[in-house]
Amino acid sequence: MTGITFHANLRQKSASHARRKLRRFYRAIEAACDAVAWLCGLLAAAWVTGDVTGQGLTLAAATRAALAVCALSAVTGLLAGLYRGRYQRGGLDELIGLGRAAAAMAVALALLSGHLVQGQRAPLHTVVGGTVFALLAMVGARHMVTAGRQWSRMATSAGVKVIVFGAGDAGAQLVHGLAHQPGAEYQPVAFLDDDPAKRHLRIHGISVLGDRTRIAELAAQTGATVLVIAIARASGTAIRDLTCEAERC
User: Fold this and answer.
1) What's the CATH code, domain 157-248?
2) Angle of helix 92-116 relative to helix 59-79, nearest 10 degrees?
3) Does residue 15 have a pLDDT over 80?
4) CA distance 6 to 14
5) Distance CA 117, CA 57 (A)
6) Cα separation of the two ends of the chain
7) Among 31-45, 121-135, 154-168, whose mean pLDDT is lowest?
8) Which residues of 128-144 are buried (b: 16+ CB within 10 A; e: fewer)?
9) What are the residues whose beta carbons fall under 8 Å from the beta carbon of 56, sequence distance 6 or more?
10) Which residue in 133, 130, 159 sits closest to 222, CA to CA?
11) Where are the domains of the chain?
12) 33 in helix, strand or coil?
């Protein structure tokens, strides 16, 4: 038994180490894509504003400037927590983090642009335009990745379809966990919540489609056979009422 336990723990540690390496690889790719977004954004802004002349700019100088922009992008992204797994993918916190990284990068470029290319200082409107282009590219890329993962998971998942009641933090964490769990037994197909302010929200790709009165209707539409109650502080009465309603459906 001791030998079996030892080998099982060894396999778990090996799998955990492999997952950490894979996460680091994905974050490195993410940082590289953000750097490309900044380079393309600044070039696009310079082209739109007519600030690109290329006079007296050697290949070596252009390479040094590009490498400096990439380094600044990585540093500001790390400081904003973008590459440390701090934010839920596609959440508001990640969007705020992107905004902070973009603002820090814009300030750095405005202060250091004269040193990136000797004797040439980027105009402020080029820096601002490049920041806007880069931020849109970074947000758009993350949204496409999130949407692609959700579509792939929903297309390939053979799990039990469930309706999640509760579109708050508990429900969002539940759906996020299932979305990133290989071979998850349950597949969320819809949110329900009694709060009218949450109507038509999309949380990790899943829409809030109404309140408890739509349980039967949505079960028929989606083929869901399970209702998951994801309310952090639900009263016993509320749970009993929702359970009875679900059983009637």
Assistant:
1) 3.40.50.720
2) 150
3) no
4) 12
5) 8
6) 47
7) 154-168
8) ebbbebbbebbbeebee
9) 119
10) 159
11) 2-151, 157-248
12) helix
Average pLDDT over residues 25-37: 91
Say if CB 213 and CB 245 are below 8 A apart. no
Under DSSP, is residue 229 helix (H, G, I), strand (E, B) or coil?
strand
Q: What share of the chain is helix, strand, coil (3-state, %, to 5)?
A: 65, 10, 25
The encoded tokens of residue 65 equal 């400037």
Under a CB-based contact definition with an 8 Å cutoff, are residues 122 and 109 in contact? Answer: yes
- Triad 70, 138, 177: Cα angle to 5°: 115
Residue type, 147: A
The amino acid that residue 200 corresponds to is H
Radius of gyration in angstroms for the set of CA atoms belonging to the chain, rounded to a whole number: 24
| Average pLDDT of span 225-248 | 87
pLDDT in tens, 103-128: 999 999 888 876 666 556 778 888 89
How far is it, in rounded angstroms, from Cα 186 to Cα 148? 19
Assigned token pair, 238:
């509320």
* Residue range 221-234, pLDDT digits in tens: 888 999 999 888 87
Distance CA 52, CA 147 (A): 36
